[in-house]
Amino acid sequence: MNAVHKIQLNNAQLLINGEFVESKTQQWQDIVNPATQEVLGRVPFATPDEVNAAIAAAQNAFADWRQTPIQARMRIMLKLQELIRANAKEIAKVLTAEQGKTLADAEGDIQRGLEVVEHACSIGTLQMGEYTEGVARGVDTYTLQQPLGVCAGITPFNFPAMIPLWMFPMAIVCGNTFVLKPSEQDPLSTMMLVELAVQAGVPAGVLNVVHGGKEVVDMLCTHKDIQAISFVGSTHVGTHVYNLAGQHGKRVQSMMGAKNHAVVMPDANKEQTLNALVGAAFGAAGQRCMALSVAVMVGESKNWIEALVEKSKTLSVNAGHEPNTDIGPVISARAKQRVEDLISSGVAEGAKLLLDGRGVQVEGYEQGNFVGQTIFSQVTADMRIYKEEIFGPVLAIICVDTLEEAIALVNANPFGNGVGLFTQSGATARAFQHQINIGQVGINIPIPVPVPFFSFTGSRGSKLGDLGPYGKQAVQFYTQTKTVTSRWFEDTQETAEVNTTINLR
User: Fold this and answer.
1) Distances (CA, A) of 308 to 132, 151, 397
2) Residues sharing a CB contact under 8 Å with residue 381, sequence separation 6 or more, in sequence order
3) Domain check: are 249 and 316 in the same one?
4) pLDDT of residue 7
5) Residue 172 and residue 204: Cα distance in Å, rounded?
6) Has residue 67 been placed in a domain?
7) Is the domain of 271 the same as that of 206?
8) What are the catalytic residues?
């Protein structure tokens, strides 16, 4: 079985035209273990020439790759999923070291991405067109789902395995070529996956990787040979990418920030609900775009708050690789400072601090970027801790009297990524899912990220663009529909009259 061997814990390399190469840039950034501040390696900010070379390689490879039989593209995905499965634990160790999440969560990160690769193995069915015979006398109409050309992906730090795997497998299996820009904060685990893709048989130029910051992003958004951009990250950057790339004629999907709510009805299963709230609010140190940020306690469910706090206290804060860890560090010292500042703002604005995660010290990891589980009650919609995406282990609690009030609160929030409802009533659940204006809805599910047969959605301030990542929408995003209307004549057939109308005859 092939294994990862090229990517070491040192300088992240570029992948250009099938070759892993050292960047010639003068600008580098340290890759830092957030639990220890140990420098694991460095990431280059690619030069304009290197970015152009990666795009040129993808452009040159496209002509041959699009002609590659769909079964051959599918078999590469079959091999890739096999390699990822075999190397998952090794990749998870690197992921935990550079990102901070627990080993179990790192393996989950890889697994959810692996599921997309598995779905890509169904491309023979997913990319089928449609055919209708006899739309007029002797006339047939059919559609073809053809690749676009060179596509690009820009991925965030919080899921360095899953989100790149949302993008490049679906793009290239549809017949496109791809340029990936991983997060500059934790690119090493992403590069391990890229190496496995090369091992799986992805031809030179079909997949390329560049590293960098805003300058590289802007080059991808404006380059004439890039046809489509997939982005996952903050609302600020995502809006910039969507606007800039759109101005330059690119197809764009931009998945952005969130403020996810869980609405708790009094009839919900108490123990299951509390477990779900704690796990979704504090797992991955709250650094998920689908993390639970707000618990909306309806009616008598407000009496569960004390039990929620007590259950939250049982979670362990430690380095991600340590056994029995529930909450690892946040990604950087800057991120820690921002989260703690937001907690302080909640206190200053009058929220009741029930559990304070500031100032956490972890023995043996005193320099780590740790923030403990934090819970506020008596939160109002005009507070910063409600209005802003915290991206840390902070849960705000709002109490309302009715389901209608809860729905109005959620729908008034500018974000629309995910929401959960906890109830034992089917009628309540149906009314909720019908009335709520949120992309992903969970019924007794705290983090309702769809499986890959469906597509990640989102609404309002959480998503720009019509089509989401993976699933059926990803195939639509990465292909162009071509409609063919055809008529064939026998050589002996008599010539008909000239038709000057738009009617088929």
Assistant:
1) 58, 45, 11
2) 387, 398, 409, 412, 413
3) no
4) 47
5) 12
6) yes
7) no
8) 289
CATH of the domain at 433: 3.40.309.10
- The reply to whether 374 falls in a domain is yes
For tokens 């500018």, the residue is: 414
What backbone torsions phi and psi does residue 397 show, to the nearest 5 degrees? -115, 130
pLDDT given at position 493 = 66
Q: Are residues 135 and 28 in the same domain?
A: yes
- Of 91, 131, 123, nearest to 108 by C-alpha is 91
Does some domain include residue 504? no
DSSP secondary structure string for all residues of 457-498: --EETTEESS--SSHHHHHHHTEEEEEEEEE---TTPPP---
d(CA 210, CA 208): 7
Query: Does residue 503 lie in a domain region?
Result: no
Length of the chain: 505
| 422 vs 443: CA distance, rounded Å | 6
User: pLDDT at residue 392 above 70?
Assistant: yes
DSSP, res 323? T
Which helix (H) or strand (E) is 264 found in, with range? strand 260-264
For position 495, what pLDDT does the model report? 66
Task: Please indicate, yes or no, whether residues 293 and 233 belong to a single structural domain of this protein.
Answer: no
CATH code for position 226: 3.40.605.10
What domain range includes position 78?
14-256
Closest CA to 465 of 231, 273, 117, 179: 231
Average pLDDT (260-283) is 97
200 and 323, same structural domain? no
